[in-house]
Amino acid sequence: MAAICVFAGANAGERESYLIAARELGAEIARRGLGLVYGGASCGLMGACADAALAGGARVIGVLPRALVSREIAHAGLSEMRIVGSLHERKATMSALSDAFVALPGGCGTMDELFEAITWAQLGLHQKPIGLLDADGYFGPLLTFIGHMSAEGFVRPPLRLAVARSARELLDALLAAGPAAVSPPGPPPPP
Question: I need a labelling partner for 6 at 20 to 30 A (CA). Which of 40, 61, 95, 154 fits?
Fold first, then answer.
């Protein structure tokens, strides 16, 4: 594994624990000699994660749609910044540059990125592991809903996401998961 794609909020959120988790993830990525690929902003959890990775000596690549360069305040100190034409191109580029996905707390954009990575895995378009850094239990309600979707027959096979409360535990789980953390779809179960 060479690079981790991180989805995260462009805001810091209401709890200091979210910023701490973002910084710990960036630092742990750097400590392990991995690269970071992310949305390219200098603010919020995105900026905190990128700054910590850079401070640790990691290569950090930002991918930002042209329309968001001034709005999300493009990070000026990255190893590389790729400006793309659309949000879809952003997600495709981030996926192509990375070997695994991690979601930190975030809003609708973070959930969009996370669910697109999950959907692509379920369709067999990639076999990269996907994890959630569950700072302060942020993803608890989402995990409950994913369980509900599975129980109601809308998610098959069941999602196998790595979930941990610390960056170290999460990266350990992703590295151990290998390429099949989310299985491609199989035939539906018999009625």
Answer: 154
User: CA dist 190 to 57, 152, 159, 160, Å?
Assistant: 52, 15, 19, 22
- DSSP string covering the chain, please? --EEEEE--SS--S-HHHHHHHHHHHHHHHHTT-EEEE--BSSHHHHHHHHHHHHTT--EEEEEEGGGTTTTTB-SS-SEEEEESSHHHHHHHHHHT-SEEEE-S--HHHHHHHHHHHHHHHTTS----EEEE-GGGTTHHHHHHHHHHHHTTSSSSPP--EEESSHHHHHHHHHHHGGGSSPPP-PPPP-
Strands 35-38 and 3-7: parallel
Listed as ranges, residues in the chain with pLDDT below 50 are 180-191
List 171's β-bridge partners, or say none: none
Amino acid at 159: L
What length is written for the chain?
A: 191
The reported pLDDT for the residue numbered 178 is: 63
- Output the pTM of the full model: 0.90
CA 133 – CA 120 distance, rounded (Å): 20
Using CA atoms, how far apart are residues 68 and 155, in angstroms rounded to an integer? 33
pLDDT of residue 182: 41
